[in-house]
């Protein structure tokens, strides 16, 4: 989804080194993002646009954190999303598949700039809020990771962004912590008692 690729542009080292990087500052990542999510901007963002992108990302992450901690959408959240979406117009077009009798209403960006992109990112998130289930929006349970994702599993039980990376790491950490608590200190590490 467009919105989660965007929010995850602030990367944190999931292994716990404390290292993080803002991928919005990386031209290579921006080009990947533009291609991956079919961004209509014709150039890389200006300094002002980059600051606005970071402001939007911060708002979305704070809102996601609010939702994942059990909070409800408030009027100010909706107003802010509407403000971001309202910055750029879209064209509506009705399309029909050749072999089908059904029609679809499609939306096409009116501009090819970063203001339009920010509106599209906001609309992508708003669509998830409107059509999805808020309980499926998650932040990885690995406190070092903070990766945002939409849990599309049938039983809604996904706890980690990736079971093979964060999931395994957290299992190992729990195992080691449990072992450390249950293992008595060795006699080698105890100071000798003089008589």
Automatic annotation (TrEMBL):
- The record places domain Zinc finger CGNR at 136-179
UniProt-listed InterPro entries: ABATE, ABATE_dom_sf, Znf_CGNR
Q: Which domain of life is it from?
A: Bacteria
Q: Know the name of this protein?
A: CGNR zinc finger domain-containing protein
Q: Which organism is it from?
A: Paenibacillus mangrovi
């Amino acid at each position: 989804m467009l919105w989660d690729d965007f929010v995850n542009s602030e990367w944190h080292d999931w292994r716990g080194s404390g290292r993080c990087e803002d991928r919005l500052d990386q031209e290579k990542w921006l080009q990947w993002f533009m291609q991956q999510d079919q961004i209509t901007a014709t150039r890389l963002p200006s300094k002002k646009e980059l600051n606005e992108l970071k402001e939007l990302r911060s708002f979305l992450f704070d809102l996601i954190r609010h939702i994942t901690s059990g909070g409800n959408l408030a009027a100010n959240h909706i107003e802010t999303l509407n403000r971001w979406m309202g910055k750029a117009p879209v064209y509506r077009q009705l399309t029909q598949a050749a072999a089908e009798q059904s029609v679809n209403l499609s939306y096409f960006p009116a501009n090819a700039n970063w203001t339009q992109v920010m509106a599209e990112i906001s609309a992508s998130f708003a669509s998830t809020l409107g059509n999805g289930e808020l309980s499926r929006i998650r932040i990885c349970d690995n406190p070092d990771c903070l990766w945002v994702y939409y849990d599309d599993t049938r039983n809604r039980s996904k706890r980690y962004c990736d079971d093979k990376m964060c999931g395994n790491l957290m299992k190992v950490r729990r195992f080691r912590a449990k072992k450390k608590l249950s293992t008595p200190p060795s006699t080698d590490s105890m100071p000798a008692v003089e008589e």
